[in-house]
Design a protein that fits this description.
With 160 residues, the protein is of the alpha+beta class. It has 2 helices and 5 strands. The protein has helices spanning 7-34, 128-151, and strands at residues 39-54, 62-76, 86-96, 99-110, 114-125.
């Protein structure tokens, strides 16, 4: 790295490396799900989002909410009902009110319920450097948990 590179530029590069690492971690889970015979299709998405929200503490103050989500959706070949058509996992990163947060969820998707999470875990940090340091292990651990949940789904899509 050039000595002239600014601290902010290095931080941006570290964050970009984090995104690439998270994508690789999700790709491993995607490949695992493709090998599970009860799924007919597996898809992975990366979704950036920006929203301006009013602060709860001061309704006149607006904060810029920025997030990025990684998600995997695995469609069952023979779902037990319309509300258990697919199972998925998501990881949402966002910055709001000067805090960095990551939330991981496991849930069902269906035509009547949309996304219905039944398991989640969250971390919150004071700064982006802490999030960058903690997130790969947090993500690996949660996706390993998701794989165990998927292994407990019977042929009809019921979790045991």
């Amino acid at each position: 790295m050039s000595k002239a590179m600014k601290k902010e530029e290095l931080l941006i590069l570290r964050f970009m490396q984090l995104l690439a690492t998270l994508r690789a971690i999700f790709r491993k889970t995607h490949i695992f799900l493709e090998s599970v015979e009860r799924f007919k299709m597996v898809s992975t998405h990366v979704i950036p989002f920006q929203q301006i929200e009013n602060s709860f503490e001061n309704s006149d103050q607006e904060t810029l909410g920025v997030s990025i989500s990684f998600a995997i959706d695995a469609d069952l070949k023979q779902p037990s009902d319309v509300n258990h058509a697919s199972i998925g996992v998501s990881l949402k990163l966002w910055h709001v009110e000067n805090r960095w947060k990551a939330e991981a969820e496991i849930g069902w998707s269906g035509s009547d319920i949309g996304w219905d999470p039944f398991d989640d875990k969250e971390i919150e940090t004071d700064n982006i450097e802490q999030l960058i340091d903690k997130l790969p292990e947090f993500t690996e651990t949660f996706l390993d948990h998701f794989k165990r949940v998927v292994s407990d789904i019977d042929i009809k899509g019921d979790v045991h």
